[in-house]
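Quick question, first post here. What does this chain look like in 3D?
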Amino acid sequence: MEKLRTAMEDLIQTKMPDSDWDFFQSKLIYKEFPKKHRLLDAGQTERYLSFTLKGIIRFFIPNPESETTVFFAFDGWFTSVYDSFVTQRPSYYAAEILEPTAMLRISYADLQEVYAKTSVGNLIGRKASETLFVLKTQREISLVNLTAEQRYLQLLKEQPQYIQQIPQKHLASYIGITPQALSRIKNRTATSKD
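> Answer (accepted):
Ran it through. C-alpha cells below.
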C-alpha cells in the first residue's frame, strides 16, 4: 500500500491527507493474476483502474490473423483500458498478464466516490488521466517518427529488466515488425555494442 501512496503523492506532487488516503485505501482490492490470465477481452467494459505492484500486462488489439500489441504496463504503473474505463463502454482492446502480477484495483463506482468525497480525489484523477494520455501520445509519436530499431532501443533503454520476459512475438508486434525482423535488429544492435 505504501508503494501506491508514494506513487500517488509523486503524481500529485503533494502529501495526501491521511483521511483522504484512508478513504481511498478502503476502496482498494488486492488481486493476483497468473501468467496468461486474460484481464479483459475486446468487447468487455473496463471496470477497474489498477496499480501494478509487480508483473507485466500486455494490451493488444485481437485479430485472428495477427494481434497488434499497443502497450505494456510494468511494476509501479497505473494501468487500465482507460478509454473504456472512463466511458464505461466496451473496449476495442484486450489485456493479458505476461508475468505473474499483483495489483491494487479500484472500481469505477468507487473511484467516483473518492472524487466526490476527498480533497485530492479530482487532482489524482486528472493527473492519472494526464499521465496515461502522455504515454499514449508518446507511443503514437514513436510509431510515426522512429524506425523499428529506434523503437526497440527506446524500449530497451526504458525497461531493460523486462525485455527478456516479454515473448519476442509480442515485442515485435509492439514495435510493428515481424519476429524475424526483430531478431535481425537484436543481432545487429548486439554486434554494434561489441
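The chain has a mean pLDDT of 89.
The chain is about 50% helix and 25% strand.
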